[in-house]
Amino acid sequence: MQTDQKVFLGLVGVAMIAASVYLGLQMLSPGNMEIEDPSTPPPVTTPAEEPQQQPIPEQPKEKEYAGIVFIGQNDNHEEIYKIVKREYSPEIDGSKIKFAISSLILGPTKSEKTAGIYSEIPVGTEIIDIDERSNVVIINLSRQFEYGGGTDSVYKRLYQIIKTARRNTDKPVYLYIEGKQADVIGGDGIMISQPLTETSLDE
Question: Taking the domains of the chain in order of start, what are their residue ranges?
Protein backbone atom coordinates (compact mmCIF):
# COMPACT_ATOMS: atom_id res chain seq x y z
CA MET A 1 0.00 0.00 0.00
CA GLN A 2 1.31 3.38 -0.91
CA THR A 3 2.12 5.94 1.69
CA ASP A 4 -0.56 8.34 0.41
CA GLN A 5 -3.26 5.70 0.75
CA LYS A 6 -2.18 4.92 4.29
CA VAL A 7 -2.35 8.54 5.23
CA PHE A 8 -5.79 8.86 3.63
CA LEU A 9 -7.15 5.83 5.44
CA GLY A 10 -5.68 7.09 8.68
CA LEU A 11 -7.41 10.42 8.25
CA VAL A 12 -10.71 8.69 7.42
CA GLY A 13 -10.41 6.56 10.59
CA VAL A 14 -9.66 9.59 12.73
CA ALA A 15 -12.63 11.40 11.21
CA MET A 16 -14.94 8.46 11.92
CA ILE A 17 -13.75 8.19 15.50
CA ALA A 18 -14.26 11.94 15.95
CA ALA A 19 -17.75 11.69 14.49
CA SER A 20 -18.62 8.82 16.83
CA VAL A 21 -17.37 10.73 19.86
CA TYR A 22 -19.32 13.82 18.78
CA LEU A 23 -22.57 11.86 18.37
CA GLY A 24 -22.06 10.20 21.73
CA LEU A 25 -21.57 13.51 23.46
CA GLN A 26 -24.65 14.93 21.77
CA MET A 27 -26.77 12.08 23.09
CA LEU A 28 -25.39 12.49 26.58
CA SER A 29 -25.89 16.26 26.68
CA PRO A 30 -28.62 17.57 29.11
CA GLY A 31 -30.61 18.98 26.25
CA ASN A 32 -31.31 15.57 24.85
CA MET A 33 -31.91 13.68 28.10
CA GLU A 34 -35.05 13.51 30.27
CA ILE A 35 -33.93 13.45 33.90
CA GLU A 36 -36.45 13.03 36.74
CA ASP A 37 -36.11 15.72 39.38
CA PRO A 38 -36.76 14.04 42.74
CA SER A 39 -37.51 17.43 44.32
CA THR A 40 -40.59 17.91 42.16
CA PRO A 41 -43.55 15.80 43.36
CA PRO A 42 -45.70 14.12 40.78
CA PRO A 43 -48.91 15.99 39.94
CA VAL A 44 -51.79 15.07 42.23
CA THR A 45 -55.33 14.95 40.94
CA THR A 46 -58.04 15.78 43.44
CA PRO A 47 -61.75 15.05 43.06
CA ALA A 48 -63.89 18.04 42.30
CA GLU A 49 -65.14 19.63 45.52
CA GLU A 50 -68.87 19.60 46.06
CA PRO A 51 -70.35 23.07 46.51
CA GLN A 52 -70.90 23.78 50.20
CA GLN A 53 -74.53 24.08 51.21
CA GLN A 54 -75.38 27.37 52.80
CA PRO A 55 -76.98 26.98 56.24
CA ILE A 56 -80.68 27.70 56.23
CA PRO A 57 -81.32 30.68 58.50
CA GLU A 58 -83.62 29.96 61.41
CA GLN A 59 -87.04 31.47 61.10
CA PRO A 60 -87.90 33.81 63.97
CA LYS A 61 -90.32 32.17 66.33
CA GLU A 62 -93.83 33.47 66.19
CA LYS A 63 -94.79 35.27 69.39
CA GLU A 64 -97.31 33.58 71.65
CA TYR A 65 -99.76 35.33 73.94
CA ALA A 66 -101.80 34.38 76.97
CA GLY A 67 -105.19 36.00 77.49
CA ILE A 68 -105.74 37.34 81.03
CA VAL A 69 -109.29 38.36 81.94
CA PHE A 70 -109.70 41.49 84.06
CA ILE A 71 -112.55 43.99 84.34
CA GLY A 72 -112.93 47.35 82.64
CA GLN A 73 -115.50 49.54 80.94
CA ASN A 74 -116.84 49.83 77.42
CA ASP A 75 -117.51 53.08 75.56
CA ASN A 76 -120.82 53.42 77.43
CA HIS A 77 -119.00 53.16 80.78
CA GLU A 78 -120.54 49.76 81.44
CA GLU A 79 -118.50 47.11 83.24
CA ILE A 80 -117.24 44.34 80.97
CA TYR A 81 -114.63 41.60 81.15
CA LYS A 82 -111.44 42.81 79.48
CA ILE A 83 -108.99 40.40 77.88
CA VAL A 84 -105.41 41.58 78.29
CA LYS A 85 -102.84 39.90 76.05
CA ARG A 86 -99.53 39.12 77.70
CA GLU A 87 -96.56 37.88 75.68
CA TYR A 88 -95.72 34.37 76.72
CA SER A 89 -92.62 32.21 76.09
CA PRO A 90 -92.81 28.45 76.84
CA GLU A 91 -89.01 28.30 77.32
CA ILE A 92 -89.12 31.03 79.98
CA ASP A 93 -92.63 30.93 81.44
CA GLY A 94 -93.33 27.20 81.34
CA SER A 95 -96.96 26.11 81.17
CA LYS A 96 -99.33 28.58 79.51
CA ILE A 97 -102.17 28.00 81.99
CA LYS A 98 -99.80 28.47 84.94
CA PHE A 99 -98.46 31.69 83.44
CA ALA A 100 -102.00 32.98 82.78
CA ILE A 101 -103.38 32.21 86.27
CA SER A 102 -100.23 33.60 87.94
CA SER A 103 -100.60 36.81 85.92
CA LEU A 104 -104.29 37.01 86.86
CA ILE A 105 -103.58 36.68 90.60
CA LEU A 106 -100.84 39.33 90.40
CA GLY A 107 -103.38 41.71 88.90
CA PRO A 108 -103.20 44.38 86.20
CA THR A 109 -100.00 46.31 85.56
CA LYS A 110 -99.63 50.00 86.39
CA SER A 111 -100.32 51.03 82.79
CA GLU A 112 -103.38 48.76 82.65
CA LYS A 113 -104.71 50.31 85.85
CA THR A 114 -104.21 53.74 84.31
CA ALA A 115 -106.38 52.56 81.38
CA GLY A 116 -109.19 51.72 83.84
CA ILE A 117 -108.59 47.96 84.11
CA TYR A 118 -108.94 46.33 87.52
CA SER A 119 -109.47 42.94 89.18
CA GLU A 120 -111.96 41.65 91.74
CA ILE A 121 -109.52 39.06 93.05
CA PRO A 122 -108.67 40.18 96.60
CA VAL A 123 -105.18 41.45 97.38
CA GLY A 124 -103.37 38.80 99.40
CA THR A 125 -104.77 35.86 97.43
CA GLU A 126 -101.98 33.35 96.91
CA ILE A 127 -101.50 30.42 94.58
CA ILE A 128 -100.84 27.33 96.68
CA ASP A 129 -100.36 25.18 93.60
CA ILE A 130 -101.32 24.78 89.97
CA ASP A 131 -101.20 21.08 89.24
CA GLU A 132 -101.26 20.47 85.50
CA ARG A 133 -101.56 16.80 84.64
CA SER A 134 -101.98 15.05 81.31
CA ASN A 135 -105.80 15.22 81.50
CA VAL A 136 -106.67 17.85 84.13
CA VAL A 137 -105.57 21.12 85.73
CA ILE A 138 -106.17 21.84 89.44
CA ILE A 139 -105.88 25.47 90.60
CA ASN A 140 -105.41 25.56 94.37
CA LEU A 141 -105.81 29.04 95.92
CA SER A 142 -105.56 30.39 99.45
CA ARG A 143 -108.60 31.19 101.58
CA GLN A 144 -108.35 34.93 100.86
CA PHE A 145 -109.79 34.33 97.39
CA GLU A 146 -113.35 33.69 98.58
CA TYR A 147 -113.86 36.49 101.11
CA GLY A 148 -114.43 40.23 100.91
CA GLY A 149 -116.24 42.49 98.50
CA GLY A 150 -119.72 40.98 98.64
CA THR A 151 -121.57 38.47 96.47
CA ASP A 152 -121.27 40.45 93.22
CA SER A 153 -117.51 40.70 93.66
CA VAL A 154 -117.21 36.95 94.33
CA TYR A 155 -119.12 36.18 91.11
CA LYS A 156 -116.84 38.47 89.10
CA ARG A 157 -113.62 36.99 90.49
CA LEU A 158 -114.90 33.48 89.80
CA TYR A 159 -115.68 34.45 86.21
CA GLN A 160 -112.20 35.94 85.91
CA ILE A 161 -110.73 32.58 86.93
CA ILE A 162 -113.10 30.62 84.68
CA LYS A 163 -112.63 32.79 81.59
CA THR A 164 -108.84 32.98 81.98
CA ALA A 165 -108.57 29.22 82.47
CA ARG A 166 -110.76 28.39 79.47
CA ARG A 167 -108.75 30.72 77.20
CA ASN A 168 -105.42 29.10 78.03
CA THR A 169 -106.03 25.34 78.14
CA ASP A 170 -108.29 22.71 76.62
CA LYS A 171 -107.99 20.46 79.67
CA PRO A 172 -110.72 20.29 82.33
CA VAL A 173 -109.94 22.79 85.11
CA TYR A 174 -110.93 22.43 88.77
CA LEU A 175 -110.80 25.14 91.45
CA TYR A 176 -109.61 24.19 94.94
CA ILE A 177 -109.45 26.37 98.05
CA GLU A 178 -106.84 25.37 100.61
CA GLY A 179 -106.59 21.87 99.12
CA LYS A 180 -110.33 21.14 98.88
CA GLN A 181 -112.51 21.25 95.77
CA ALA A 182 -114.53 24.49 95.87
CA ASP A 183 -118.10 23.34 95.23
CA VAL A 184 -119.46 26.09 97.49
CA ILE A 185 -117.64 29.38 97.94
CA GLY A 186 -117.99 32.64 99.87
CA GLY A 187 -120.08 33.68 102.83
CA ASP A 188 -123.26 33.51 100.77
CA GLY A 189 -122.57 29.93 99.69
CA ILE A 190 -122.23 30.38 95.91
CA MET A 191 -122.55 26.99 94.22
CA ILE A 192 -119.96 26.01 91.61
CA SER A 193 -120.25 23.08 89.22
CA GLN A 194 -116.91 21.63 88.18
CA PRO A 195 -114.88 21.32 86.00
CA LEU A 196 -115.03 25.05 85.39
CA THR A 197 -117.07 26.21 82.37
CA GLU A 198 -118.95 29.36 81.42
CA THR A 199 -122.05 27.78 82.98
CA SER A 200 -120.44 26.71 86.27
CA LEU A 201 -122.18 29.51 88.18
CA ASP A 202 -125.62 29.06 86.59
CA GLU A 203 -128.23 28.15 89.16
Answer: 64-191
